Amino acid sequence: MQLEARGLVLDSLGERPRLHRLTVEPPGPGEIRIRMRAAGLCHTDVSQVRDARFTPILLGHEGAGEIESVGPDVRGLNPGDRVLVCWKVPCRRCRRCTAGQPHLCEDVVGLAGPRAFRDGEPIGPMLNAGCFADYVVLPAAAAIPIEVDLPLEEAALVGCAVATGVGAALWTAQVERGASVAVFGAGGVGLNIVAGARIADAGRIVAVDRDETRLALARARGATHTAHPGEPFEAVDYAFEVVGDPAVMEQALATLAPAGELVLVGAAARDALASFHPRGFLSRQQRITGCIYGSIDPHEQLPELLGWCADGTVPLGDLIGRRITLDKLERGFDEPANGGVRTVIAFE
Fold first, then answer.
1. 244 falls in which pLDDT band (50, 70, 90)?
2. Which residues contact 247 (CB under 8 A, 6 or more apart)?
3. Measured by CB atoms within 10 angstroms of the end CB, which terminus of the chain is less buried, N or C?
4. Is the CB of residue 208 less than 8 Å from the CB of residue 226?
5. Is residue 338 over pLDDT 80?
6. Measured between alpha carbons, how far is 347 from 152 in angstroms, rounded to an integer?
7. CATH number for the domain including 272?
8. Range of the domain at 49
9. Running DSSP on this structure, what letter comes out for residue 73?
């Protein structure tokens, strides 16, 4: 049956998202409906206000909840199961997937049609997720069972901040033992890049940010050095740009050692441009790599990451600076995380 829900909808670029009453359809074949319990407010959500690909759009992509109902042909998932939302599900059929590169899937799995409506108008979900709603319908493959003892407010952050950050170090860049790393931007994703570099046993890890609280969090996760923007430090093998600012990208590129790699993780504006000196880049045999979702295979790595968070290998609790309810989320887009780096929505 249909369910009534609240959801945060962006109607036009540049406007503030607003909470609306929605009708959520029952799950179809191969789909599930989740009652959301927690969601993180990520910089990517905020960036949608600037450059969402379509509107109206139901925002949110980093979340966790409990299965409310399952559609026909769903196996291995049951009502009441705690699950993590995966917003990029590989098809397992395209040439990239069959070549062992599911993170480059060319036909990401989505819903067969709209499942959320406002006064009869279909509202498309952000990144096939749309987590800023009381109930969401997802492909069954987008639900990753949470089989560890982890609060859902923390588990929700694994779906983007942890997966993208730890994954950027371990699976995108594949940082080697003893390598040197610089992370430009110590927010939720950047701090998890630091954690990933520590897991990779990097030799020197530099966190760059202007916020002393965030630099302290970086040191707690294994940063061996910290710096403010513009402060010089020894060249590194890997530089991660997590701000999405072309000027910061150019600064990060300038810190690379010969054969170094710049990994772009921050969501820049779609029309942003960055520049570099190609001759020096060529002569130093350097690389620039884009990173989406930490290059993870979600069904393999998300359970592993959940385990690392549960056993403390990847700390999470201190990332949460503000807990709000869904009815406060409109204002949450304008407010800082209040001492931490992530605002978390706790659903009533």
1. very high
2. none
3. N
4. yes
5. no
6. 11
7. 3.40.50.720
8. 3-145+315-346
9. T
